[in-house]
Amino acid sequence: MASSQPAKPPLIGQPSSAQRGSQPGLRYPASGKTIYHRPLNRSRTQELSQASFAYLFGEMVSYAQKRVTGIQDLEKRLNTQGHPIGLKLLDLLLYREPPRTQTRPLHIIALLQFITTILWKHLFSRPADALEKSSNPETPDEYMISDNEPLVNQYISVPKEMNQLNCAAFVAGIIEGVCDGSGFPARVTAHSVGKGEEGELWPGKTVFLVKFQPEVVEREAYLGRT
Amino acid sequence: MVVYALIIINKAGGLIYQRDFAEGLNKLSINDYLVLAGTFHGVHAISTRLNPLHSSTARSSTDSRPEPPSGIEVLETENFRLQCFSTLTGTKFLLFTEPDQPNVDAIIRRIYELYADYVMKNPFYQIEMPIRCEVFDRRLGQYLRPLNSR
């Protein structure tokens, strides 16, 4: 096919059809430099438009809503969308820490503090509002991170018939990714705790329930003894 | 200074939002509100046609797009004033206020902003359908309550 148009040079930035065939949907700039070639610290202080994020997230929710069987299924899908982001952010944020604190968190508390301060500041430019351990003695493996006004939910009104849903399940997925990536496998879920009363201070308050796997708690107890 | 009520009409002339903020207007039945919205939409459409065309020289000399004819902007009675703000996409915001309410333009633009934020960015809102967004209701109340109590 190249012989049929010998005089025409290939357009810059457009891969030839052979390349396109081998890597469908992926395009490389003409210089060969992708975002993976950029220094990792370059975008450290850059900010994004919240409006464009809101539209993107709205579409992500709509996409996740297609062909789901129920609210739990929808939350699972949002969680799955967030999980790989958490895995990658763990590495990126540790890399950006000063060299002395670049080690991975080794205890549950250190990990959760990493999440509520460094991860939260990176994602939402502020730390999380509270970090609590479950007071119930039967569930020593549960921790709660609260956010008074999750950024992802700022423009979202969940319809009454779906009031169990909290779209911050996406953020729960990110947290879960960080926990899994650092070797503390956990299940993280997002729950709305606002009562929907008139004049409430934080109507959108959300609690992220972090439930670690039993082996994590077991290891933690062993580490504590030595 | 009282803002009585807000009505939002979609581009097909359907009522998609109606809310009272203060006493002062008679309550209508939901059917009457629908008729009011449809009638206003029709009259507004006719009034845009009545509007004399912009002079052809002005249109050809500038390459910028001419302003669309605005149609009815204000409707005033002894007891209230109805200000209409029509967006470029044809959604209409009708604000009922006291006749001497100042800065209605600014209020209505702020309401449009709230609509753009809390309705259009909500993934559960279906476009052109009635607005049932809790956060929009809340923000609207937060914005207009202090104005009315001043």
Describe the structure.
- The complex is a heterodimer of chains A (226) and B (150).
- Chain A is an alpha+beta fold.
- Chain A has a single domain (50-194, 201-225), classed as Trafficking protein particle complex subunit 3 (Muramoyl-pentapeptide Carboxypeptidase, domain 2, 2-Layer Sandwich).
- In chain A, 40% of the residues lie in helices and 11% in strands.
- Chain A is built from six helices and four strands.
- Chain A has a four-stranded antiparallel β-sheet with strand order 1-2-4-3.
- In chain A, strand 1 (130-133) and strand 2 form a beta hairpin.
- The longest helix of chain A is centred in the middle third of the chain and has 26 residues, at 71-96.
- Chain A is globular, with a radius of gyration of 22 Å.
- Chain A starts with 16 loop residues before the first helix and ends with a helix.
- The model of chain A is unreliable at 1-21 (pLDDT under 50).
- A five-stranded antiparallel β-sheet of chain B has the order 2-1-5-4-3.
- With 150 residues, chain B is α+β, with helices and mostly antiparallel strands.
- Chain B is built from four helices and five strands; from the N terminus they run ββααβββαα.
- Chain B is globular.
- Chain B has a single domain (3-148), classed as 2-Layer Sandwich (Beta-Lactamase), CATH 3.30.450.
- The A-B interface holds A 51, 54-55, 57-59, 61-62, 65, 155-160, 162, 167, 196, 203-204 and B 117-118, 121-125, 132-136, 138.
- Chain B: It comes from Amorphotheca resinae ATCC 22711.
- Chain B: This is Trafficking protein particle complex subunit.
- Chain B: It is found in: Endoplasmic reticulum; Golgi apparatus, cis-Golgi network; Golgi apparatus.
Q: Topology, pairings included?
A:
The complex is a heterodimer of chains A (226) and B (150).
Chain A (H helix, E strand, L loop, with lengths): L16 H6 L27 H16 L5 H26 L11 H17 L5 E4 L8 E6 L21 H13 L4 E7 L13 E7 L1 H12 L1
Antiparallel strand pairs in A: 1-2, 2-4, 3-4
Chain B lengths: L2 E7 L5 E6 L9 H21 L5 H6 L12 E3 L4 E6 L5 E6 L6 H15 L15 H15 L2
